[in-house]
Design goal:
With about 280 residues, this protein is α/β, with parallel strands linked by helices. The protein has eight helices and nine strands.
């Protein structure tokens, strides 16, 4: 599988603006009138397509990890689900030459079926708790060619917690922080600065970060921490002080958010990450 060669941000902006009518009303129709949590989306509100029989066993499928947590965040794995997953699948189908399944999958880390899917997404991980079996399964998945993208966790304590959990996954490895020179920021779309996407609600409040998660201890910058295998392949990417998935989920809620974050950051970075995962 491969992507259309040498697309750039300007082309993405043009194409997504042309295509925006396809999805722009969906989030508005499913949003609650109170301005808080939206009503649950239904599959018929989002585009779908038939998968060619010749590719039914060889398509990209957006895969999400279900995990446990503590307190009110025990269900945090489903943050932005399923709109995030469906929207990203639509755009990947429209903007690339990948064969894409319109319907994503959700797996526990311990599900053997996960090993059939080389890319997996985790959201809202600041309070995730992995069992010993899940930690071992994540390690095996990554070391056997899988790629994990962990997104949407903010502030200093969230990083410390996620790092402690990842130490259980990779007790013999330490994360390395990526700078803008890493190829994942230039695979298809050439990002000129470190990406940072606030949640839609933070953006509505005029913020670039989600302040309700606690103290940033003086560091509100985006950070991308990577775990690498023995051959130097990036196998897990932790997107700290970022909510990349909100640029997918909420692309249709407001044209300003769509223009500023969905088409300029969330989709370019997401396509770059998937390209990397599928080609390394």
């Amino acid at each position: 599988m491969h992507l259309i060669a040498e697309k750039r941000i300007r082309l993405l902006v043009i194409v997504l603006c042309v295509l925006s009518a396809a999805l722009v009303g969906f989030a508005q129709r499913t949003r609650s009138s109170g301005g808080g949590r939206r009503q649950a989306a239904t599959r018929d509100q989002y585009p779908t397509w038939a998968v060619d029989d010749d590719f039914k066993h060889d398509v990209f499928t957006f895969t999400r990890i279900q995990y446990g947590g503590y307190g009110r965040s025990s269900g945090g794995w489903s943050n932005d689900y399923p709109d995030c997953d469906w929207n990203f699948s639509v755009r990947l189908h429209q903007l690339t030459s990948m064969k894409v399944d319109p319907n994503g999958k959700v797996f526990r880390l311990t599900d053997p079926e996960l090993f059939n899917y080389p890319f997996a997404y985790m959201s809202n991980v600041q309070n995730m708790v992995l069992s010993p079996e899940e930690a071992a399964a994540m390690r095996k998945y990554c070391l056997n060619g899988g790629f994990i993208m962990a997104d949407d966790f903010w502030a200093a304590e969230a990083w410390r917690h996620v790092k402690r959990e990842m130490d259980r996954v990779f007790p013999d490895r330490q994360p390395r922080e990526l700078d803008l020179s890493h190829e994942i920021f230039h695979m298809v779309y050439d990002l000129k600065e470190m990406p940072q996407v606030p949640s839609y609600f933070a953006w509505q409040d005029g913020e670039k970060v989600e302040r309700w998660h606690g103290s940033f201890e003086g560091d509100e910058a985006p950070h991308f921490h990577g775990y690498f295998d023995d051959d130097g392949r990036l196998m897990a990417l932790l997107c700290h002080n970022n909510d990349i998935g909100d640029g997918w989920e909420r692309e249709g809620e407001h044209r300003g958010f769509f223009d500023q974050y969905s088409i300029k950051i969330s989709y370019p970075l997401g396509i770059n990450i998937v390209t990397y995962a599928m080609t390394h």
